[in-house]
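User: Second chain of the day. Same drill as before.
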Amino acid sequence: MPPKILVTGGTGYLGHEVIKVLQGRRLEYELLGRAQGFDLFWPFQIEERFLKRFGESKGDLLLLHLAAMSRYGRCQERPEDASRVNVESTGAFAHCIRSLGGRMVFTSTDLVFDGEHAPYGEKAIPKPLSVYGETKAEGEEFVLEDSKGLVVRIPLLYGPSFDGQHGASDHVLEELRGGRKVHLFSDEIRTPLLVKEAAEALVALALDPGVVGVRHLPGPESLSRFELGHRVAKEAGLDGSLIVETSRLEMPGPPRPRDCSLVRG
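Assistant: Same format as last time:
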């Protein structure tokens, strides 16, 4: 009998694609969001509501925890909110799932690393530079306390989004189509992955109970945002000369990692 699949963040960029994959596999799922009474800004309400709703589902729960406060700048400006959403709420869900004998799959980020020792394997120790990276790394710890838990670190995602505003490529294409210049980092390296491919791989890992601990989902190669921008512009038949090379060092706030390339294993 398949597990009862629960999904947080199902209305987000990756979440939309994950839902498509679940539907394509004809798997039933249930969304957990504000509309269903699970507001991640109120972590202390999560456990009571979760256990009231799913307390009889012993051992057959699979929670895909995709929801997060993920905007880099917003997390820096509102660290307490970032901690509530990314750490405390993750801990609340992890405690509930563990108490019921279920399995939790948590999407983390390549930004848990400082960017100075790439490429990063799955045994690399997190050393984040930002509030976002710090809170995701702390959230990982709650999930990994359970032997059934799985943390999947996701790189920079790109590809069409449901509203044309979420992917790393959406903004670039919108500006280029409008004949406007786009400034992109040439000195911040990631391993970008198409969001559709990330969703398919994530669901496959989640459905395999033998996959536990930490797994990375890198794209096929290491690229800067500047290089990625040129590629998506070329594929769309747009003028790449409007893409302006800039440096992460020019950005205000905490330093951004130089190279967070991920590798499997």
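The longest strand covers residues 103-109.

User: Great, on to the next one.
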